[in-house]
Amino acid sequence: VQLQASGGGLVQPGGSLRLSCTASGHSISSYNLGWFRNRPGKRRETVATINSDFSPYYAGPVKGRATISRDNSKNTLYLQMNNLNSDDTAIYYCSATRGPGYDYWGQGTQVTVSS
What is the DSSP code string of the chain? Predict the structure, then answer.
Protein backbone atom coordinates (compact mmCIF):
# COMPACT_ATOMS: atom_id res chain seq x y z
CA VAL A 1 0.00 0.00 0.00
CA GLN A 2 1.24 3.50 -0.86
CA LEU A 3 0.47 6.43 1.42
CA GLN A 4 0.36 10.13 0.59
CA ALA A 5 0.11 12.64 3.43
CA SER A 6 -1.12 16.18 2.96
CA GLY A 7 -2.56 19.12 4.82
CA GLY A 8 0.48 20.46 6.62
CA GLY A 9 1.49 24.09 6.65
CA LEU A 10 2.07 27.13 8.80
CA VAL A 11 -0.42 27.57 11.61
CA GLN A 12 -0.62 30.17 14.33
CA PRO A 13 -0.54 29.05 17.97
CA GLY A 14 -4.01 28.08 19.05
CA GLY A 15 -5.00 27.24 15.51
CA SER A 16 -6.21 24.02 13.96
CA LEU A 17 -5.50 21.88 10.98
CA ARG A 18 -6.51 18.60 9.46
CA LEU A 19 -4.03 16.22 7.96
CA SER A 20 -5.08 13.66 5.39
CA CYS A 21 -3.40 10.48 4.26
CA THR A 22 -4.66 8.89 1.10
CA ALA A 23 -3.80 5.28 0.40
CA SER A 24 -3.51 3.56 -2.94
CA GLY A 25 -2.69 0.12 -4.13
CA HIS A 26 -4.77 -1.69 -1.54
CA SER A 27 -7.83 -1.14 0.58
CA ILE A 28 -6.95 0.16 4.04
CA SER A 29 -9.93 -1.50 5.69
CA SER A 30 -7.88 -4.36 7.14
CA TYR A 31 -4.98 -2.15 8.24
CA ASN A 32 -4.24 -0.47 11.52
CA LEU A 33 -3.28 3.12 10.77
CA GLY A 34 -1.38 5.78 12.58
CA TRP A 35 0.05 9.25 12.62
CA PHE A 36 3.59 9.79 13.84
CA ARG A 37 5.80 12.83 13.98
CA ASN A 38 9.43 13.88 14.06
CA ARG A 39 9.90 17.02 16.09
CA PRO A 40 13.18 18.90 15.58
CA GLY A 41 15.95 17.06 17.40
CA LYS A 42 13.59 14.36 18.67
CA ARG A 43 12.99 10.75 17.79
CA ARG A 44 9.89 9.77 15.87
CA GLU A 45 6.92 9.51 18.20
CA THR A 46 3.39 8.26 18.00
CA VAL A 47 0.70 10.90 17.73
CA ALA A 48 -2.40 8.74 17.35
CA THR A 49 -3.42 5.40 15.95
CA ILE A 50 -6.67 3.87 14.84
CA ASN A 51 -7.18 0.17 14.43
CA SER A 52 -9.13 -1.59 11.73
CA ASP A 53 -11.98 -1.85 14.24
CA PHE A 54 -11.88 1.97 14.55
CA SER A 55 -10.58 1.94 18.13
CA PRO A 56 -8.33 4.98 18.64
CA TYR A 57 -5.28 5.69 20.74
CA TYR A 58 -3.85 9.11 21.51
CA ALA A 59 -0.43 9.95 22.86
CA GLY A 60 -0.41 12.06 25.98
CA PRO A 61 0.79 15.33 24.43
CA VAL A 62 -2.14 15.44 21.98
CA LYS A 63 -4.90 13.82 24.02
CA GLY A 64 -7.90 16.09 24.09
CA ARG A 65 -6.62 18.12 21.16
CA ALA A 66 -6.48 15.53 18.41
CA THR A 67 -9.03 13.35 16.66
CA ILE A 68 -7.96 10.52 14.42
CA SER A 69 -10.46 9.10 11.98
CA ARG A 70 -10.60 6.96 8.91
CA ASP A 71 -12.90 6.66 5.93
CA ASN A 72 -12.37 3.25 4.41
CA SER A 73 -14.67 4.08 1.50
CA LYS A 74 -12.27 6.89 0.55
CA ASN A 75 -9.17 4.92 1.55
CA THR A 76 -8.19 7.92 3.66
CA LEU A 77 -6.90 8.55 7.18
CA TYR A 78 -7.34 11.89 8.92
CA LEU A 79 -5.91 13.74 11.87
CA GLN A 80 -7.69 16.80 13.21
CA MET A 81 -5.56 18.79 15.62
CA ASN A 82 -6.77 21.78 17.61
CA ASN A 83 -5.18 24.31 19.92
CA LEU A 84 -1.81 23.82 18.30
CA ASN A 85 1.34 25.02 20.01
CA SER A 86 5.00 25.24 19.11
CA ASP A 87 5.66 21.75 20.47
CA ASP A 88 3.47 20.42 17.67
CA THR A 89 5.91 21.68 15.05
CA ALA A 90 7.10 18.54 13.30
CA ILE A 91 7.03 16.46 10.18
CA TYR A 92 3.95 14.29 10.39
CA TYR A 93 3.91 10.85 8.85
CA CYS A 94 1.08 8.44 8.27
CA SER A 95 1.63 4.72 8.45
CA ALA A 96 -0.18 1.45 8.02
CA THR A 97 0.28 -2.05 9.26
CA ARG A 98 -1.38 -5.40 9.48
CA GLY A 99 0.91 -6.19 12.40
CA PRO A 100 3.01 -6.24 14.35
CA GLY A 101 5.04 -3.15 13.39
CA TYR A 102 4.22 -0.20 11.17
CA ASP A 103 5.83 -0.97 7.85
CA TYR A 104 4.15 1.24 5.26
CA TRP A 105 4.97 4.95 5.47
CA GLY A 106 3.94 8.10 3.69
CA GLN A 107 6.40 10.81 2.76
CA GLY A 108 5.59 13.20 5.58
CA THR A 109 4.00 16.62 5.72
CA GLN A 110 5.51 19.57 7.56
CA VAL A 111 3.50 21.32 10.25
CA THR A 112 4.92 24.55 11.63
CA VAL A 113 3.22 26.34 14.49
CA SER A 114 4.42 29.90 14.73
CA SER A 115 3.13 33.43 14.97
Answer: -EEEEE--EEE-TT--EEEEEEEESS-STTSEEEEEEE-TTS--EEEEEE-TT--EEE-GGGTTTEEEEEEGGGTEEEEEE-S--GGG-EEEEEEEESSSS--EE---EEEEE--
